[in-house]
Amino acid sequence: MQPETPEVEIKRKEILRYFAILVIVFVFSSFIGFFQSQQSPESAEKFVGELFKKFGFIDFSNPLQVIGIIFINNTVLAFISLLAGIFFGIFPLLFVASNGHTIGVMVFVKGDEIGITKIVALLLPHGILEIPAIILASSYGMWLGRLFFNYVWYNKKVDFNTAIKLCIKRFIRVVMPVLLISAVIETFISPLVPILLFPS
Q1: Residue 135 belongs to some domain of the structure
Q2: 39 within a domain of the structure (yes/no)
Q3: Tell me: the pLDDT tens digits for 151-190?
Q4: Shortest CA distance to 183 belongs to which of 137, 134, 140, 146?
Q5: How far is 57 from 62, CA to CA, in rounded Å?
Q6: Closest of 164, 141, 5 to residue 84, by C-alpha
Q7: Is 2 part of a structural domain of the chain?
C-alpha cells in the first residue's frame, strides 16, 4: 500500500532563509558587476546602451504606458523565476545574480555620467520595493526546487500541484501588488528624487 503524500506547507522560516541567501547573492553580484565595469568600462557602456535600446519603444510622455510596461516586465520575469525554480532552484539563483550584476554595471556607467549618489537616489525609491519583491518570488522558486530535489534524490512524495498553487497565491497576493506600487513610484517619484536632493 502506497503511503499518503505529505501535506504541502510553505514555512516562513524556510522562505526567509532562501530570501537571505538570495539577498547575499544579489549584493555580491552587484559588487562584481560594478568592479568588472571598472576594469572594462567600454564593455559596460555598450551593455547598458543595449539594455536601454530594448525599452526605446516606450513613450515616456504617457505615464500609464510606462507603469504598465514596467509592471508587466517585472511581473513576468519574477513569475518565470518562481516557476522555473522547480528545477532544483538553479534558475532563481542565476536570475537574481544576473539582476544584481546588471544593477552593478548600471550604477557604474550612469554613476560615471551623473554621479554615484544621483544614480543611487534615482534607483532607491522604487528599488527598495522592487528588488525584495523579485527576490521573494525567487525564494518561492527555490522552495519549489527544494521539493523537487527531495523528490528526485530522496524519493519523497510531493504534491507539486498544491505546492505550485500555494506559490502562485502568494505571488498574486504579495509580489504583484508590491511590483505595481514600485512601478508607480519608478514612474512618478524616482525621477524627482535626484532633482530634489541635488538641485543644480
Answers
A1: yes
A2: yes
A3: 999 888 889 999 999 999 999 999 999 999 999 999 999 9
A4: 134
A5: 12
A6: 141
A7: no
Number of domains in the chain: 1
Report yes or no: 101 and 139 within 8 Å, Cβ to Cβ: no
Residue 136 lies in a domain: yes
Check residue 164 and report its DSSP letter. H
Could you tell me the three cell numbers for 22? 538570495
Residues 9-66 pLDDT 10s:
899 999 999 999 999 999 999 999 999 999 999 999 999 999 888 877 787 789 999 9
Distance CA 106, CA 67 (A): 21
Return the closest-CA partner of residue 22 out of 102, 128, 120, 98.
Answer: 98
Residue 122: Cβ within 10 Å count: 21
Q: What domain range includes position 122?
A: 12-44+61-195
| pTM as predicted | 0.93
Q: Rounded to whole angstroms, how far apart are CA atoms 197 and 117?
A: 10
8-state DSSP, 127: H
- CA atoms of 61 and 56, how far apart (whole Å): 13
Phi, psi (rounded to 5 degrees) for 151: -65, -45
28 Cβ contact list (under 8 Å, min separation 6): 100
Grid look-up 537571505 returns 20
Calpha distance 200→198 (Å, rounded)? 6
3-state SS class at 107 = helix
In sequence order, what are the residues at sequence separation of 6 or more whose Cβ sits closer than 8 angstroms to the Cβ of residue 32? 100, 101, 104
Amino acid at 74: N
